[in-house]
Amino acid sequence: MGDWLTKLASVRYVLYSVVAHAVLFSVLFVQFAGPSVTQQQEPPEIIDAVVLDEEQVMAPIEERRRAEEAAARQAEQARERQEAEEQRRREEEEQRQREAEERARLEEERRQQEAEEQARREEERRRQEAEEQARREEERRQQEAEEQARREAEAERRRQEEEAERRAQEQAEREAEEERRRQEAEAERLRQEEEARRERERQEELERQRQAEEEERRRREEAERQRREEEEEARRQREAELQRQAQEEQLERQAQRAISRLQAVWQREVEDAWSRPPGAEAGLTADVRVRLRPNGDVVSTTIERSSGSTSFDRSAENAIRRASPLSVPDNEEVFQRAGLEHFVFRFNPDRQP
Questions:
Q1: Domain 255-347, what fold?
Q2: Global pTM?
Q3: Rounded Cα–Cα distance for residues 114 and 31 (Å)
């Protein structure tokens, strides 16, 4: 196939060369055949030139090449099919030969196995016969040995029985002695256990008595402790009550002294802050209810009993508020006990000292 393509390419190059030379010869011929340049020039003759198309030239060649290639391919395919068929026949023949050889090998192996099996069975038969003979011989020897062993065993049994009777007698005597000792030990153990039980019961009774006495002692001590605590608590309560009463009495005395003292102090403080209103008569008296805070600040004032003069009453209230904070006890409890948070203040600026 490669040689054919090489030949086809060579033919193609030859055709190209022939066409090129033909065109060249035509041009040269026209030039040499024309008039000289010194002669009078005539109008050029029109020559019909034919252009050769490479495709037109190569089309038949390409068609033949394709036909030849197709024929070559068909021939190649036919050759390949023939080779494949020959290869298939060879492989089938080889397969038949291998199968025949395999059957022959298997048949040979079967014959060998049968021969080996026959030999094995023969060998097994001889071995079994030998084993059977050996077994019978062994049984005979065993029977003789067993008979000898039986006779010896019988003699040994009689000897052991006699020995066992002797040992049993000795064992019975030992057991009787041990039983006697055991009974004595058991009696001693029971006696000791009884004594231990009585001692334990005596100790337990003593322990119960001791615990009862201890419990009674703790009960008496607890009762005594409670009694002392109750007496101590009663004493503390009496002392606290006496102290409270003393404090109450002291607060009461301080409150009474504060009321007596503060009446004059407030009278002076209010009078210092008071201005007599115009037209007020001498000897007027007004009772004013005053509310105080513990620090002496005046919270409110109201006329409890009027003096009969509105201007005097108003001046008395104004004077009390201007005098705020009024003097009060340093102790707030005294302040509360004296009732100074609200009281009636009698304002009489014209009283005689």
A1: 3.30.1150
A2: 0.33
A3: 109
